[in-house]
Amino acid sequence: MLRVTFLGTAAARPTVGRNVSGLAIERDGELLLFDCGEGTQRQMMRYGTGFNVSDIFFTHMHADHILGLTGLLRTMALQGRVDPLRLWGPSGAEPILADAVALGMERLPFGVTIRELRPDARVSRDAYDVVAYRTQHGTNAVGFALIEHIRLGRFDIERAQTLGVPPGPLYGRLHRGESVVVGGRTISADEVVGPPRPGRKVVYTGDTRPCAATVNIAKHADLLIHDATFGTEESERARTTGHATAREAAEIARRARVERLLLTHISARYADDARVLEREARRIFANTFVAHDGLELEIGFRDAGTEAHPAVKVEP
Ligand SMILES: [Zn+2]
Ligand SMILES: [Zn+2]
For 166-215, what is each residue's pLDDT tens digit? Predict the structure, then answer.
């Protein structure tokens, strides 16, 4: 299971309808947070992600992406958390995050580690990596790509049976690419195992201008979540503040040939209606949606014939 939940989709400050930045990704029972703006913990309650977070990845140290950390840690402490928590951020993040952890005086009953990730650094786990890459926001800022490892090819049980391979350990050896001998005949893995299958990929830019680094890392991603603070009429402001327009985000999505684009970090000027951003982006890249708080997306394996589910509207 790979589920993305938008906890906050507003730029700079919350509005009545949108909280500031926060994104939860749940993968096979593990919960990762990306950015943690003020009020993120309440959004986590509201949208039911739970607090069993193992890692929080910060794209940069602007207030609208980090001010939720202190309160979230206090709540975790009150809930009796003992599991360690890992915090990750770009160069320069360590002292700022350490201050946020220490703020409020009470000692935390669980360990917190803080690590800075240079661009291209990766946090490797059993079945996936989180890779940091350099974005363009006028400060130390990174985006993150969650990239699952390549999976073994599909095992054709019927074919194996036809070839006389008995169910059991030989199946496993074939699946791992070894040849086996059955009744004097050598059977090679490629007779019963399909080609390796790619894992899923989700890319979150954080705040950024459109940049080639996003195109590179997001190539064929299942989901690209891109800064789209402004519409085209505010192109100049997007440029001077280190943000992207919806149209620019769509251009990146088109060049990277992603499956789907979600626009986030929406300026308060679109508080009443953000669909103008969707319309502008869709002229460039059709499979675009404006994210809203509480939006949940489940990302399926493409080879399983399960397209990513359509956007699910979750009422606040
Ligand atoms: Zn921001
Ligand atoms: Zn920012």
Answer: 999 999 999 989 999 998 999 999 999 999 889 999 999 999 999 999 99
CA dist 252 → 95, 187, 232 (Å): 33, 46, 15
Q: CA 48, CA 89: separation in Å to the nearest integer?
A: 25
pTM summary value:
0.91
State in Å: Cα 138 to ligand 2 middle: 9
Residue with tokens 């350490």: 98
111 close to 84: Cβ distance less than 8 angstroms: yes
Q: Which helix (H) or strand (E) holds 101?
A: helix 93-102
Residue 161 three-state SS: helix
| Dist CA 177 CA 61 (whole Å) | 46
3-state secondary structure (DSSP) of residue 214: helix
Q: Please indicate whether residue 126 is annotated as part of the active site.
A: no
User: What's the gap in Å between 41 CA and the centre of ligand 1?
Assistant: 17
Summarize pLDDT for 256-293 with one digit per residue, the tens: 999 999 999 999 999 889 999 999 999 999 999 999 99
Active-site residue (options: 35, 55, 64, 207): 64
Instruction: Find tokens 């308060």 and name the residue.
Output: 268
Nearest to 55 by CA among 139, 146, 119, 189: 146
